[in-house]
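Deliverable D5.2: sample structural annotation.
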Amino acid sequence: MIDIIYSLLRAMAHVVGAEQVLVDSWESIRDFLELGGNVLFLIGGLLVVLWTLMLERLIYFYSGHRKLVQAVLSDWESRRERHSWHAHRIREAMIAEVKMALQKNLPLIQALVALCPLLGLLGTVTGMVGVFEVIAVSGTGNARAMASGVSKATIPTMAGMVAALSGLFLSVWLQRKAEREVELLGEHMTMDH
């Protein structure tokens, strides 16, 4: 699978004349993945899913959300009666509908951000198991073999932390933006007295 992706990227880079840059970058990435072990593939896949969900939310906030708010406000303003208990419940239901649309995928995004360091910790544990295996087989005299296990222990930890940090700010911002938008909608949907 990775070879197929590499071949496609190389063909595209050849067209634009950046084949050597791609080859150098790809080799650096491949070396990094080999040093960190298989857990880096999990962290990378998780990061792709995380950023896909966050980009979807950004696109929604700046396109689909405005349309929904306009529709809800239009429906509310077109109501003749806006002061009874029944009207108040309809208003709450309309606000809840918008809130649900705003909150879509936000708990999943927050869970994925929290999962990144845990996968890094998994890489740490698997790397240290490799170190202990080397020590059990050859003792502490084979520093080169132990270094491989240590890199497999530390690189996934770093990658998991970087992945979590890359999504932490935006996930908090998305949550706060959703809360602000719900408050603004509630202020715009006035009740007649």
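Annotation notes: Residues 83 and 192 are 5 Å apart (CA to CA). The first helix runs from residue 2 to 16.
The annotation will be released with the project's public dataset once the embargo ends.
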